[in-house]
TrEMBL record:
This is UDP-N-acetyl-D-mannosaminuronic acid transferase. NCBIfam families: wecG_tagA_cpsF. It comes from Shinella yambaruensis. InterPro entries: WecG_TagA_CpsF. The keyword Transferase applies.
Length: 267
């Protein structure tokens, strides 16, 4: 990662035509902290995995939204796609479930963190968990994720009034990324993250993945063994493999080591 006039520049890799940042844990934390502590500007971070990559392949609007955001790799499928396209894995598997709590630990400066998403009880339990995890930050549950779209501007007024530094949004893909793109703007936080089922995990609704499994990048096998009923969802992985193979054989590729970059604070 390079610092240019106070902005951070991160290199990217082409995954199914979408630029995805190839940061390791330390650089990703430094990137996000720099954004969150800037006096102005805003950057939106999204996470790409096999499931929402499939959505992107059939939803041009969703792809366009992701192209306007800073995208991090989430999951073994995207990691394997990087092997196919670029001959190497991503430096880190930056799942939102692992990344966000670790980032909040990394940022020593007290932050005001607004939360939107999940059901009300889940949202409140997730906020309580984060308060115990990093008590030097202020966690502000703004709204659950089950609101009418015509309430969006009023909800963002509450975020603005809360003077949030960081905004966490968990409403499922592609709804959360599209909603952020339409309704979140400067003055609503310097760092915005669209998340997977983070609030459910923090609330204890779903068990966290063991760290050893995450480190070995065997999450797909762990989930399959823990929840055999998820077997039909393997169809999504098969669909993703099809997209990867088709793109490898016929899709345009960004040159390896090209100058494609994502700049913090510029979105």
């Amino acid at each position: 990662m390079n610092l240019v006039s106070g902005n951070i520049t991160a290199s990217q890799r082409d995954i199914l035509g979408l630029p995805v940042c190839d940061l390791g844990w330390a650089d990703a934390f430094a990137f996000a902290e720099e954004v969150a502590t800037m006096p102005f500007g805003q950057s939106v971070i999204a996470f790409i995995n096999a499931g929402n990559a499939n959505l992107m392949m059939r939803d041009p609007e969703y792809r366009a939204v992701l192209e306007r955001q800073v995208v991090l790799p989430d999951g073994d499928g995207v990691d394997l796609a990087s092997m196919v396209f670029h001959g190497r894995r991503f430096p880190a598997n930056l799942t939102s479930i692992a990344f966000v709590p670790a980032l909040l630990t990394y940022i020593a400066k007290p932050m005001r963190v607004a939360l939107i998403g999940a059901r009300t009880a889940t949202l409140m339990r997730a906020a309580d968990t984060l308060r115990r995890h990093t008590p030097w930050h202020a966690f502000l549950p703004i709204s659950d994720g089950h609101f009418d779209q015509d309430q969006s501007d009023a909800i963002m007024e509450r975020v603005h009034a809360a003077d949030a530094d960081i905004l966490l949004v968990s409403m499922g893909s592609p709804a959360q990324e599209k909603w952020i793109d339409r309704h979140v703007g400067p003055g609503h936080a310097r760092l915005v993250l669209s998340l997977g089922p983070l609030f459910d995990t923090l609330a204890g609704n779903t068990p966290p993945m063991p760290e050893a499994v995450r480190r070995l990048r065997l999450g797909w096998l762990y989930r399959l063994m823990a929840e055999p009923s998820r077997l039909p969802q393997r169809k999504a992985q098969i669909a993703f493999a099809y997209h990867v193979l088709r793109y490898k054989l016929s899709g345009p590729m960004m040159p390896r080591g090209s100058g494609n970059t994502a700049k913090a604070g510029s979105l």
